[in-house]
Design brief:
The chain contains 5 helices and 8 strands. With 184 residues, the chain is an alpha+beta fold.
Amino acid sequence: MKMMYHTERLDLQVLNASAYKKVLRFYEENKLHFEPWEAKRTKTFYTNQYHEALLDAEYNQILKGNLLRLYVFLKENKEEIIGTVSLNNIQRGPFQTCTIGYKVHRRFCNQGIGKEMIQKALKIALDDLKLHRIEALVHPLNILSIKLLESTHFEREGTAREAAFFCDSWQDMYRYAFIADGRM
């Protein structure tokens, strides 16, 4: 598994714990943009220590092949994270599957960044990791995310009832999947 990938406009790379300030800045700048769709943050989430420890733990999981989280930068600006895409819960054996997660900086929405980084993540999942199925869960009201998944050939398979706890209650989520059958 490589630690850096490229697209026409983007550099996608694994970050280690030394990048905690950039990662924290990314989350602070997008707090209102991300939080409606995610679990409640811990009190320590917006601290340097939290992100340094998280990056260190994720880096170790990446080395073990259980996860691939890539932070996204414009090629001309390596200082500002504009997104992240991750392949989580990588399962081998008869499943050859994972779950994809992604975030796009609020200032870069509707510019094709999300589509470009997801397409690259799918290529990595299929070609490098030899996965067969990539799944995504998305809240039914998260229209931007639904459009993004559908634009990258994910198909809605149904509703996962009470699949995620956020906004102080269990929420239904739409289940999407991308199957390795040459649609890219």
